[in-house]
Write a structure and sequence with these properties.
The protein contains 7 helices and 2 strands. Strands 1-2 form a two-stranded antiparallel sheet. The longest helix is centred in the middle third of the chain and has 22 residues, at 46-67. By secondary structure, it is mainly α. The chain has a single domain (3-134), classed as Four Helix Bundle (Hemerythrin (Met), subunit A).
Length: 142
């Protein structure tokens, strides 16, 4: 489904740009990343770290969306937003992959390997930094 389809199905709504909400989402995303960085990844916490790392990624994407005037009600629509509105195909593919991993954890109880979590702990913060620099620079200056 493309981004316009999500709009037609009311899973995305065009809205007024909301700088304060964007700032709040950025703050919450960075709080999660800070806590994650303080923990030592292990088999015991791999699932929790993966889930929270994805949440931090999602919050940054949502911050960009609300700053650009979109309210997104679907994680799949965030993938389309990243790919089509931001034209960040590689980031969109990774976001969607991590979305599916998060869903498999939350809805099917699928365990996640420590190696997969460690990969996410390196990759997701890089994507967040790239997105922040490209799309949230003005928000962070305010």
């Amino acid at each position: 489904m493309n981004f316009e389809d999500f709009i037609r199905r009311n899973l995305v709504r065009k809205a007024t740009s909301d700088t304060e909400l964007a700032k709040s989402l950025i703050t919450e995303s960075y709080k999660i990343l800070k806590v994650i960085k303080e923990l030592n990844p292990s088999d015991a916490n791999a699932t929790l770290l993966m889930r929270e790392c994805y949440e931090s990624f999602r919050q940054i994407c949502e911050a960009i969306a609300v700053y650009k005037g979109y309210k997104i009600y679907s994680h799949e629509a965030i993938t389309a937003f990243i790919a089509e509105i931001l034209n960040e195909k590689e980031i969109a593919e990774s976001f969607d992959r991590y979305r599916k991993i998060r869903n498999s954890i939350n809805y099917y109880g699928t365990p996640i390997s420590l190696a997969e979590t460690q990969k996410a702990l390196v990759e997701i913060p890089k994507f967040i930094d790239d997105l922040k620099k490209k799309y949230l620079f003005d928000v962070l200056r305010l």
